[in-house]
Amino acid sequence: MKFRCRMMDVIAMRDFTNIVNVISRITKQCTLRLTPDELCFSVSVDRASMVWAELTQTHFFTEYIMNGVSEEQNEIYLEFDPTMLAKSLGSLRMTAKSVKIKLTNKRQPCLTIEIELPSLSLESRQCLHDVPVRVIPRREWAEHRAPNIPQFDISVDMPQLKHVKHIVERMKNMSPRLTLEASKTGVFALKVDTDSATVSTHFQELQVWSSSQRNQEDKVSATIDIKKFFMFLAWDIVHPDGVKCNIVQDRVVNLFLHVADYVKIQYFLPSVFT
C-alpha cells in the first residue's frame, strides 16, 4: 500500500482544512477511504451512516499517488481521530506554501503531514505532524461502504444555510426536537413544539426536485434531533452551491450538499419519536 499527495493551491488547502474541521466537531472517530479518483470521509453512529463526504482528488491535489491493497481492490481504508488531523492542518491558516500528506509506518501506521511555511530566510520552514491511524482490513470494508440512498417522498432545495442557522440557533433553546416539513408547492418549514406553543418558520418558492405527493396541499415531514441538525449547518463554511433536503415521511432526513463538482456531502438524520 502507498499513499502520497500534495496541495499547493491556497483555496484547496482552505477548503480541505474546513472540511476536516467540521468533521472533527461531529465525531471523534472517522473513516477515510482512498481511491485513485477521490477521498471519502465517513462517519457512522451505531453502524448507521451519518456523514459521507466525497472529495475529487484532482481539485485538491497537484500530486496524488495511491496504490491500494491489490490491483483488483485498489482502495485503502483508514480509521483515525479527525480532531488530531484538524489540529495538524491548523498551520495551513498561516499562509502555508504547500502541504504533503502521506501514509507512513512509525512504529504504527500514521498519516504524516509535512507543511511548508514561508520564511524570511532563503530556506523555508517545515512543520511535521504524525496522525496515528488504523488500517482497516478488507474483511471490514463492507461496514464502511457508501450508504444506500432511500427513495425519498420529497426532495426540495433548502434556503441558504446561514439563514437557517440563525433560526435554528434560537429554536434549539426551545426544544430538543425539530420538525422539517416540505410540500409539493415549494414550501419548506422548520417547526418546534413547546408546552405552550408551536413555533414555525416558513420559506416559500423553493425548487422541488421530486415528490410522491398527489395533492398540492399534502406535506412530508420528519422530526429529528435539533442539535444534530444544527451541527450540519456548520457546513456553511465550505460555501455550498446548493443543498437539497430529502425526506422520507417519519423515517429519515437526508441532506445533500455540493460544491461545484468536487465536493459532495450526504448527511443522514433518522427520525426521532416525540
Automatic annotation (TrEMBL):
Principal localisation: nucleus
The keyword Nucleus is assigned to this record: yes
Pfam families reported for this sequence: Hus1
N-terminal signal peptide: none
Gene3D superfamilies membership: 3.70.10.10
Key words, A-Z: Nucleus
GO BP annotations, alphabetical order: double-strand break repair via homologous recombination; meiotic DNA integrity checkpoint signaling; mitotic DNA replication checkpoint signaling; mitotic intra-S DNA damage checkpoint signaling; nucleotide-excision repair; telomere maintenance
GO cellular component: checkpoint clamp complex; nucleolus; site of double-strand break
InterPro entries documented for this protein: DNA_clamp_sf (IPR046938), HUS1 (IPR016580), HUS1/Mec3 (IPR007150)
Record keyword Nucleus present: yes
Compartments it resides in: Nucleus
Family: Belongs to the HUS1 family.
Protein name: Checkpoint protein
Provenance organism: Frieseomelitta varia
Record lineage: Eukaryota, Metazoa, Ecdysozoa, Arthropoda, Hexapoda
